[in-house]
Amino acid sequence: MELIIKNGIVYDPLNGVKGEAMDIYVKDGKIVEKADGSKAQVIDATNMLVLPGGVDMHTHFAGPKVNLARMLRPEDHYKDPQRKRGVRRCGTGYSIPSVFTTGYWYAEMGFTLAFEAANPPLKMMHVQDELNDTPLIDKGAYPVFGNNWYVMESLSKGKIEECAAYIAWVLSAIKGYAIKVVDPGSVEEWKWGKGQIGDMDKQVENFGITPKEIVRGLAKVAKLLNLPHHLHIHTNMLGNPGNSEVTLETMKAVKDLVTNGELLIHMAHLQFHSYGGKEKDWNSFRSGSEEIMKYINKNPYVSFDMGQIAFTDTTTMTADGPFEYNLYEITKNKWMNADIEFETGSGIVPIEYKRDNFVHSIMWAVGLELALLSKDLWRVALSTDHPNGAPLTFYPRVISWLMSKKARERVLKLIPSSARSKTLLGSIDREFNFEEIAIITRASPAKLLGLKEKGHLGIGADADIAIYDINPKALDPERDYRKIRKAFRFAKYTIKDGKIVYKDNEIIEHFIAKTYWVNPHIREDLYNYINSELERNFDKYYTVKISNYKIPEGYLVKSKRIDIITKL
Amino acid sequence: MKEYRDILCPVCGCLCDDIEVNVENNSIVKVQNACAMGASKFLNFSKERLKNPLMRKNGELVPCSLNEAIDHISRALVKAEFPVIYGFALSSCEAIKVGIELAEEIGAVIDNQTTVCHGPGVQGLQDIGQVSCTLGEVKHRADLIIYWGSNPQDAHPRHFERYSLLPEGRFRGGKKDRKLVVVDVRKTATARMADFYIRIEQGKDFELISALRALLRFEDIEQEQVAGIPKEKVEELAEMMRSCEYGVIFFGQGLTQTIGKDRNGDNLFALVRDLNKFTKFLVMPIRGHYNVTGSNEVLTWQTGFPFGVDLSKGYPWYNPGDTTVVDIFRRGENDLTLVVGSDPLAHLPRRATMHILEHPLFTIDPSMSLTAMASNVVIPSAFYGLEAEGTAYRMDGVALPLKKIVEPPEGILPDEEILRRILEKVKEIRGK
Amino acid sequence: MREIKLSLKEPFIPPLDCSVINTDNFYQNSLEEIKALKIWRGNREVSLEDVFSIHEENISEQGDIKIYIEGDLSKARRIGQGMSFGEIIIKGNYGLYLGAHMKGGKITVYGDCGSWVGVEMEGGFIEVKGNVGDYLASSYRGTTKGMKGGTILVNGNCGVEACGWMSGGIVKVMGNSGIFPGIHMKGGIIYVKGDCAGRAGANMIAGRVIINGKVDDILPSFKIEEVRGSVKVGDEKIEGPFYVFVGDLSDEGDGRLFVHVNNNPHLKKYEEYIP
């Protein structure tokens, strides 16, 4: 199948294309130099914005905790029924959409790749089940390791290679993509009912290791394994006043590991970690974005995604069990907890972010400040930590806030003045242009994930393309931010693997795209050692057999294995 | 002879995955590690089974071809205005997916056995939430284990051994480090092992939970007895719960199917939630059929709702009491029933099942159940985990692979394949 | 005044989703348009006139709109959904979700009703001459918002879990109530003239549950406060004396449960706890 996208206004930051009218040729799912005009289907994209398919590098859309949240909240679904229409399967929204609906919503917005951000290895078969059922996007999943017993024990003994070999074994066995850390040390202590650890140098009970040592150890492991994506961390004290200190400490903890100007640590949903003020004192709550961004701008080994919030009813879900308990105590909403043996935990609490709430309105400003204060957008990705900050359908709104000061001011006017004074947002004039939006929603996340065939429209790239019905040359985003919102919410065309899957408000194809995972190759003796250790001890650690824990590659509907030559 | 290890036991929600099976001439000759229930299934499953599709002609069920059976069912499904598809707790998740697609295609209500077992627990969860964990957490940490209205010694024989009281965990050395409490109306096999047994008056679970919750808030109880239990004993139980290091409650149908049903679950979840102010406390249902959890999971990720999903209007809608089969049957609203691996005539209240006999009734089942005997068409199916592979979910939501260890009898297909053929036929009839 | 009369043509098996039958909707439409309105009979969309014969009478300048519906409507649901004015009169037994999300106007049913009468109701008046099913004036599963306002009068009995998650309005049940009246209640009043099967006021945070008849047991998480001579339900004064309990203490609730002293001599033991 061949496709020509004619005369669109193309932004392709990775290839230095900045709003040029040009043709794009597609053949067999890839971008090619030239297509045969007589056989190809032609899309006239004159006066339309053409971008690489969107990349969501931090989102919670599939797996055990997402499904528990769906189960917890029928009321979230009643208000957003999704009707069957043609090939479009039925489903439900609103903040925790069912799998088909999730795939369609991404496609509607021109997104073609999403990474599920926190997954317990023990329940990875569930994650793969849902990924197998999520249509129209490529995807992958980050397993969590920050409270894993094997990790904590090997690191506490200084056995970095053993820890790396173990993680290589797990990633390959359960088909994961990167190393995710969630609230290192705290989740293990939460399993005894204790709260979040705020002191990065405190020893985790029973394990003789500190959160800082876990972070450092895993950053080293990610380097040793040559993983395409560096260490992805949700650091300690999420959601607490004054947590920017812990965030800075986390970043500083790995600084000396940088050897060659490489990226080393990805700070997930940074908004939730960038607050000033005093611990436990909500009155002192204020934006901490300035000191955070001062550090990140100077230190190119750190990347982050925004974790922007929006004022709506949504659902928080995270492997950070102790945080969710705190949130339950504050909101008294329904609360789910699901601890996972040997590995991690998780919690779920619904929340309604309110514009007239002092804390929520500061949170809203902080997320935008982080992006707007960045001096290097190649280390920034747009996210709402879906659905923690807002459902994924709010990305267009976030884009409009970033592009239009006027859009921001409309909200700023409505938040409490006591909150406004605790933020910087009002003093920031910066407005992103289309190229910058293309960076933070496409090029940068693809690059941070180490996916060379994604996030751009160069020859050989996957033909994942979004066409929006707006003319970037004729539109003033500052004034017409509503048009921006509308255009980014419903693309004119979305092309996945060279096929038009969405067009003019209709899903026209339903298929399952690729699932990315890494297969790190390690020395045979090391592999054998780890394998025998695990085989010997598995029954002690777990309640399932090691052979049933592993997931065969054939379990994935469309496996995309990335073989890695590691330093081991 | 072939030897298989790490086989899943397709019987109860424990989904033990350490079974060893020897197969000779396509027949299971030896089973190790299984409980009596499991071993019996492995050794005897193929003894009394249905070998042929059947169709009712002149009032009699007579053998027919599979194509004939599928054609008949498909035509009826296309005609039906409010069909119900029910079952799936003994199917693989892959089969459930096809069942949902079929329900969506024809505009049916799809429901699973949750509706008559742990549905009330799920509903309670939807009001309060549930503080829970995987079973290995209990093995490693729990020092207080409470079975409430559940009797695993009889119904889930390896629950003690593998997951709760007996295993040696990282922080607990087995039974000596744990206390066992049983709350039940009679002294069951499980209760006989208890360190502390509470005989509760039939149907008074809610009252006892309310009293415990009030005591946790340091309120006084203005009654001499609660649920037939002296106040002092209730206070003792509350103190035991508050002062343990790591407690867990496993509840069964003794809680969810007695007076108050969903509200018992609701209140129990609130009790466990409240206990987390003092210590770590968790709660988990003891699920019956081996993949009833999986049927909730798949329905939830595809439609947003765990059971009783009405797809008649082209989108999912759920409200237990409205969209659940017992209620639909009782109101006499459905005009067709397709049963997949269940026996509603044997298990549902008679008042509810009288209605389904008046309309087309079809059954897909490996054996000749009561419902199959009353059906218009019966299609025999393969046994998952024995004759067909797939995915199943343990009671704590851990997904595990069911394996195929013997060949099914010739011509016998698994649910997934049968349903897929029906789906294709339905689409063909509707001209797609 | 427009008067529109619907009568059921023939009995049917599948449920009938009649959410289009409400006064707001009919008022804006001509008779022909009303006849063509789509409703769901099971999984089929049919027009209203396929199911009902429909007539319009008494068109006059005064008043707004009245809809009369007759027949065995026990499988009909969602009549009067979201309506804000006018009147619906149903003659016959009726199914589920009567007056769901209703904001104003009046619905009268001469017969029995199924479950979820007045679910998430915000205003207006519903009267049922017969019995009603479960979840009267309550919420959908998982939604923690029941009836917010308005009045419901049930002349017969009600099923279980009446007024679940209710936050405002008045519900009067002249017959008996099943278990759990006022469960998770956050405000408003439920008055049961007859007996209650038990667990009144479970998990309530605020509001009033009044049981005039007999109730077997009080939940252990309620505490007696006083004996009061009478209690007001809207503008009606109900004569006591009543035991007044506070609860549900298991939810740190401050609701009030009134139980008639004379009909419940077995609760006399509570008197010693009166502070």
Please tell me about this protein's structure:
The complex is a heterotrimer of chains A (568), B (432) and C (275). Chain A is 33% helix and 22% strand. In chain A, strands 1, 2, 3, 4, 5, 21, 22, 23 and 24 form a 9-stranded mixed beta sheet that branches. In chain A, strands 6-9-10-25-26 form a 5-stranded parallel beta sheet. Chain A has a 5-stranded parallel beta sheet with strand order 11-12-13-16-20. By secondary structure, chain A is of the alpha/beta class. Chain A contains 19 helices and 26 strands. Chain A has a single domain (51-500), classed as TIM Barrel (Alpha-Beta Barrel), CATH 3.20.20. Chain B has 2 domains: 54-114 and 290-384 and 392-401 and 409-429, Rossmann fold, CATH 3.40.50.740; 119-285, Dimethylsulfoxide Reductase, domain 2. Chain B is built from 18 helices and 22 strands. In chain B, the strands form 5 sheets. Chain B has a 9-stranded mixed beta sheet. In chain B, strands 11-10-9-14-15 form a 5-stranded parallel beta sheet. Chain B has a 3-stranded antiparallel beta sheet with strand order 1-2-3. In chain B, helix 2 packs across helix 18, helix 4 packs across helix 12 and helix 9 crosses helix 10 (231-243). Chain C has a domain at 112-273. Chain C has helices spanning 23-27, 31-36, 48-51; strands at residues 2-8, 16-17, 38-41, 44-47, 52-57, 65-70, 73-77, 87-91, 94-96, 106-110, 125-128, 151-154, 170-173, 189-192, 208-211, 223-233, 236-247, 255-260. In chain C, the strands form 2 sheets. In chain C, strands 5-1-6-8-10-11-12-13-14-15-18-17-16 form a 13-stranded mixed beta sheet. The longest helix of chain C has 6 residues, at 31-36. Chain C starts with a strand and ends in a 15-residue tail after the last strand. Chains in contact: A-B, A-C, B-C. Chains A and B meet through helix 1, helix 2, strand 7, strand 8 and helix 4 of A and helix 3, helix 4, strand 8, helix 5 and helix 13 of B.
Keywords:
heterotrimer; B: 432 residues; alpha/beta; Rossmann fold; Dimethylsulfoxide Reductase, domain 2; 2 domains; 5-stranded parallel sheet; 18 helices; 22 strands; C: 275 residues; mainly beta; 13-stranded mixed sheet; 5-stranded mixed sheet; 3 helices; 5% helix; elongated
